[in-house]
Amino acid sequence: MAAVYKSTAFVGVFVFTFVTLCLFPLPVAGITRYYKFDIKLQNVARLCHAKSIVTVSGQFPGPCVMVREGNHLSVKVVNHVPNNITIHWHGVRQLRTGWADGPAYVTQCPIQKGQSYVYKFRIVGQRGTLFWHAHISWLRATVYGPLIILPRLGVPYPFPKPYKEVPIILDTEAIISQALQTGGGPNVSDAYTINGHPGPFYNCSAKDTFKLKVKPGKTYLLRLINAALNDQLFFGIANHTLTVVEADAVYVKPFETEAILLASGQTTNVLLKTKPTYPNASFFMAARPYVTGSATFNNSTVAGILENKLSPNSLPSSISVKNLSPFKPNLPALSNTSFVENFANKLRGLATVHSPASVPQNVDKQFLFTVGLETSQCWQNRTCQGPNGTKFAAAVNNVSFTTPTTALLQAHFFGKSHGVYKTDFPREPKIRFDYTGTPPDNTMVNNGTKLLVLPFNTNVELIMQDTSILGAESHPLHLHGYNFFVVGQGFGNFDPQKNPNNFNLIDPVERNTVGVPAGGWIVIRFVADNPGVWFMHCHIDAHQSWGLKMAWIVLDGDLPNQKLSPPADDLPMC
Ligand code: C2O
């Protein structure tokens, strides 16, 4: 059910230019890179209508932040709009700098109108593509941009040096406010976009198409980012295979594929080799959703165009200069779960038997989390549009997270947790049932601000099990402050006897966001070596707002360099 906004009157009064996203290569490798983000409203004309959106410095997508591994970053965020704001550096490990992580009421109170906050942190041991986005209510719909980490000067990529690098951000034009007021599902988005452009398949957008002009026979590095609020997306380019080389700012063993899957919050670098033999041909690059569960979705396709051009004077006379109409890519079907499973199996770290990954081989603490949609009581004297007049809710181990009114990290650091949070988050579900079979009769969630405490350097194993309570669905779980290794996954209920025999403890992929398979399970491992309070949540914003989130407290270690640093003076107050 496509819900492209239809209107006959195109309001084209606003002039809005899309800025060049990133400039490659980074000119200088300074020690600290400074940026200033002015949060302001900007009028835009999109998809046949005009609207005012919250932006960083009037740009959409927002400015490209580019650093080298080892650089410090200092980003001054000044809020000029009535909405409270915070910025999250999605995927940055934030070693001992949790105060700069960004999720509202988790690591900081929001930056209020007229106030500012400087995010200060260092990029350590990471290189590749990440992104930044607002982390409060639904503002990340328009407040986001690429975060590109180049390797240290003189350190090459573990793949042939690309001719050029291009960031490609996939997103949605979302309508969201209604869902939060009715307790129902979110409205489907207006359209998907590539680098902010909806492309030729939507109304009023033929001219609003992302075009990438390339030269024949060259290798390009595409830095793909899924910044969409609520969608997992397939991406591909007609008549081309892509070579995956990195995921979530960690290199992977290269493999070729026709299409890639990007869950919301995931990033992937691919090499694209342009055709030497198709001079002056155009190819669509396109994205459309991977759909699980029963939620309404927008099954439309966003397209951009790859223009393969020889320079006119190098054209052999026999070839026509006129552009052919673009070739279309063959993307996996909307619910092609076997493609998704296959793609997940191909993602492997660079490690080998002789130099295995640093994945914990032994586990100190094991947790089993059920994740999924459930229901909760409608507000008093209101009608709700969830199942049987309830309100949609989502939970981890049946606990739907209640956002506190003061920041958890402050409460933890200053020893003032009383009345803010409890540390009794369940290590496993209270009731056992066939998670992927018939749901229990009672599908109501419990509410609370519950956290789990981990001593410094704990080796954690976390099994995440999808439930089918309101339909099996793939949930992209994102952990702040950490990368984790994906050691196993499968369908049905996790079997603690059988499944661990097949865990990959040699070259598992390392990432910060992973899709729990629809009607299945996934097992991740990480070492709790970064003290602080770390949010973990479904990166589908609708599910997050329904409560599919929790937080970990990782305690300080004994050594001075194992302790959370104190906050700066400009840390916002609630
Ligand atoms: Cu990209 Cu907590 O999110």
UniProtKB/TrEMBL annotation:
Instruction: Give residue ranges for domain Plastocyanin-like.
Output: 40-152, 173-308, 425-556
The coiled-coil regions, if any, are none
The record's keywords, sorted A to Z, are: Apoplast, Copper, Glycoprotein, Lignin degradation, Metal-binding, Oxidoreductase, Repeat, Secreted
| Gene Ontology terms: cellular component | apoplast
Gene Ontology terms for molecular function: copper ion binding; hydroquinone:oxygen oxidoreductase activity; oxidoreductase activity
Protein family per UniProt? Belongs to the multicopper oxidase family.
Q: Which cofactor does it need?
A: Cu cation
**UniProt name for this protein:** Laccase
Localization, UniProt: Secreted, Extracellular space, Apoplast
| Reactions accelerated catalytically | 4 hydroquinone + O2 = 4 benzosemiquinone + 2 H2O
Pfam families cross-referenced by the UniProt entry:
Cu-oxidase, Cu-oxidase_2, Cu-oxidase_3
Q: What does this protein do?
A: Lignin degradation and detoxification of lignin-derived products.
Protein EC: 1.10.3.2
One biological process term in Gene Ontology: lignin catabolic process
Does the keyword Repeat belong to this entry?
yes
InterPro entries for the chain: Cu-oxidase-like_N, Cu-oxidase_2nd, Cu-oxidase_C, Cu-oxidase_fam, Cu_oxidase_CS, Cu_oxidase_Cu_BS, Cupredoxin, CuRO_1_LCC
Report the cofactor remark: Binds 4 Cu cations per monomer.
What is the first-listed, main subcellular location in coarse terms?
secreted
